[in-house]
Amino acid sequence: MVTFNMMYMYQTLLTEIKDGIQIITINRADKLNALNRLVMDELDQAVGAMIADPGVAGAILTGAGPKAFVAGADIGEFVGLSAEEGRALAIRGQQIFFRIERSSKPIVAAVNGFALGGGCELAMACHFRIASDQAKFGQPEVNLGLIPGYGGTQRLTQLIGKGRAIELLITGGMVDAGKALQYGLVNDVVAPEALLAKAMAILQVVRTRAPLAVAKCIAAANAVFDESIDGFSAEIEGFAACFATQDMKEGTSAFLEKRKAQFSGR
């Protein structure tokens, strides 16, 4: 059964709730789904609505059409910007992508084509990535006299290592889906027609797990890369907090009683 979220009407996004999973599609296929200010603002709103919706367990983020996930930022909006205006643009972009990365519910990027520049940065902000075998990834900002501004230098290095990240960053080159899988940039590669089904299947498994424990796993994994947080301490606190939940009592009881747990998110 497919239901549609009618609470929000977006100009640049399509949103659909299917079996408890929110599908967010950037809908600018004629522009290769390029990120402009409106897309970014609506994406921020859509992610916030998804997190707040108790009936949604996670989200899939993808792009409209067969050619692109997101082929980059809308470069026309960069023309004439001062250094301070560029700074403000990057700060806003990083705020939105941190919201995705820090979501208590998993967000999966279903990369169906080009994921370049801001599109690669957006995919990397998601908790993990499933790619079609037609996908291509890259940070080509040096070709414009720029560097990534939405977290790309940091997340690319975290995901694939310093040497490979710097090579891609300073050459502006692209890697195909197979190379992205080899590098650890994506979790899996499938045929284009299987992309959404693969992402949905993973999230349907997650949907059967304890929501509060899922959120604590995400927070603890993110703490690895946050210098202001001791990750091991974050894990201890998350572990301890789970003992105060109904879900922990249900999960352990179900295990001992050899039955399937019914988690409530409490």
Describe this structure in words.
Mean pLDDT is 95; it is low at 1-6. Helices cover 45% and strands 17% of the residues. The relative contact order is 0.11. The protein has helices at 37-52, 83-101, 118-125, 152-160, 162-171, 177-183, 195-207, 211-223, 231-242, 246-257, and strands at 2-3, 13-18, 21-26, 58-63, 68-70, 107-111, 114-116, 128-132, 136-138, 174-176, 188-190. Helix 1 (37-52) packs parallel to helix 2 (83-101), helix 4 (152-160) packs across helix 5 (162-171) and helix 8 packs antiparallel against helix 9. The protein contains 10 helices and 11 strands. It starts with a strand and ends in a 9-residue tail after the last helix. Strands 1-2-3-4-6-8-11 form a 7-stranded mixed β-sheet, sandwiched between helices. Strands 5-7-9-10 form a 4-stranded mixed β-sheet. The chain is of the alpha/beta class.
Secondary structure tally: strands: 11
Q: In DSSP terms, counting alpha (H) and pi (I) runs of 4 or more, how many helices?
A: 10
Strand share of the residues? 15-25%
In helices, the fraction of residues equals: 40-55%
User: Termini, distance in Å?
Assistant: 26 Å
**What is the overall shape?**
globular
What is the string of helix and strand elements? Answer: EEEHEEHEEHEEHHEHEHHHH
Q: pLDDT under 50 segments (min length 5)?
A: 1-6
- Biggest beta sheet attributes: 7 strands, mixed
* Overall pLDDT metric: 95
Radius of gyration over all CA atoms, rounded: 19 Å
Strand line-up of the largest beta sheet = 1-2-3-4-6-8-11
* Computed structural class: alpha/beta
